[in-house]
Every structure is written in C-alpha cells, then in structure tokens.
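To whoever picks this up:

The parser on our side crashed when reading a file containing two proteins. I've narrowed it down to the boundary between the first structure block and the second sequence. Both blocks are reproduced below exactly, byte for byte. First block:
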Amino acid sequence: MAADMIMLAAVAGAHGIRGEVRLKLFTDAAENLARHARFDAGGRALVLKSIRPDKPGTAVAKFENINDRNAAEALRGVQLMVPRTALPPLEDGEYYIADYLGMVVADETGAPVGTVRAIENFGASDILDITLDAGGTVMVPFVANVVREDGARLLIDRAWLA
C-alpha cells in the first residue's frame, strides 16, 4: 500500500440484490466515508452514491454503476483508499492504522520480536495483532502502559509476547 494512500474500508461482500455492498470500516463511523466522493479501489475509481451505518464497525454502501448482486459480489475484498492529503488532521491520540502495519515490534531490551500485521478493535480498546519472528502470532492491547513508541518501532514488555 502506498504511504500516501489510506484505507478507510474494505468490501466484505454483497448486501441484497440491488448492488449494495457490506463494508468493514477502518474508521470510527460510516459518515467519515461519506465526505469522500471517490475511492481508489485497486486502480479502479469507485464513486459513492450512498452509505449507511450497519452493525458496529460495518456499513452498507452503494456505488455508481454497481447495480446488481453479481457486480457487488465481484468487489469482495476490494480496499477503498483515499489520498492521505484528503483526510483531516489527526487529533491527539488518533492515528492511521496504515502507519503501524508492518512496524517492527521489539521487547523491552530492544531485541526485535515481530511485526504488526493488523490492528483490531473488539469493543474495549485497539489491539495489535503481531506476527512473531519465532513463529505464531500474539494480540496485545494497544494502550500506553503496554506499548511504547520508540522511533520507527514499538516496544512491548516480553511478558505480553508469550
């Protein structure tokens, strides 16, 4: 993913028979997508006609020229990207997930232990999903008393990485 592009959502699949799609959101609210007229969808421009919130973390959207279930289903897995310059400035405590994906994770001694593969939120707080260099994965709360930023890497107490 280009550093100048930010993913706001991904198409999870078709919704109904009239070309609507279900979106997994990577932003706080569906309204954040509504302020963008166009999305880069893997080199293809998608123009948003409508969007409405659905279950937490999801929305239902309609794009121009996507008029039936087959066309909607063909979008499954497509990432909806916008240029970073099209986004508002970040508030204190906010971040773009894209800035952390692939970031090196080290233990408290500075020894590398893995990389961030995803950031999830199941309701309480954001969670780092880390691929460990030794094999396997671990999920760690992305909170200040567990994770510290150290330049271009994250430091985590080894106890959380077991």
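<<boundary where parser fails>>
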Amino acid sequence: MSSSTTEPRTSDAGEPVRRDRTWTITTTCGCTVSGYLPAWAEVDPSETGVLLDELPTLIADMSHWTRFPGPRMAVAHRGVESDDSEVFRTSIDANPYAGGPLPRMPVANIRIVGDYWLHSLTPSGLAEVAAQLRAQASLLDDEIRPQLISARDDWLTQQRT
C-alpha cells in the first residue's frame, strides 16, 4: 500500500508524524549528538542542557516505543474481583543503544494483565501468539461455549425436578 492511499500516522496531540525525524541531545558544553527517530516512536527523546557526564547514560537508556491499547475485562486476583483491567495491551519497543539483554531491534511486547508480559516477540513470535489466540478464540466459540450452554440447560433442568 502506498503512503498516498493511507492516512498519515498522527501523534497523541493529533499532529502528523514525520518519517524523516531525528532526535538531538545537546549538552551544557555545546556538544550535540543525534540519531534516527522512527516514525512510529511516540516520544521524541531530544533534550538540551544535559550534563556531559549524563550523556552516555541518557543514550544507553534511550527507548523508542508505541502502544496499542487492549480490551478492558473484569479480572480477579487471588479471588478478589477488580474493576475492569486492560488485557493484551501491546507495544513495539526498541532500545537502539542498549547493552545487554534489552532489544536493539524493534520487538513486540504484550502485557497480558497487570504485570504479566510476553516480551521480545519477533515478527514470527508475534505471529505464533496471534495464531494461539485465534485457536483459543475458536476453542471458546466452537467447543467450550456449546458445552457451557448444554451444562447450563442441564443444570436448570435438574434444578426444576
């Protein structure tokens, strides 16, 4: 699909998101560093007035992300009902200058509910989760729901006798 046939992505403020963006960090001594800011990144990490000693940490901690909301459902924790909670919230995250275990390349992360996550999903890993969720939805619709209807009908019949 060409960009002329789709609406441009907008930020939370409703402004169009430019595709040729860069971030820039300027230190108090006038040193400036910049890098690529993906079109999907919701926040521009640009700063001015950064102490030179803080620059390496600021760059190492840099994260680009975008969020996709999940549906709200009533959940219970340890038998206690709660208000509706967001489930299956998804994000795309990249930590382009991170050392260690954080992903430099964009990955998907799915927050199941509360603080339970599926982390660092590659495109194929995300496809596997989507297939598992579709299979679970089919199981709910095609097998469990009919059995639940039957069980409830049977229960009501037994309660009347």
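After patching the parser it read the second block fine. Strands lie at 21-27, 32-37, 47-50, 64-68, 72-77, 80-86, 89-94, 107-113, 116-121. The radius of gyration is 23 Å.
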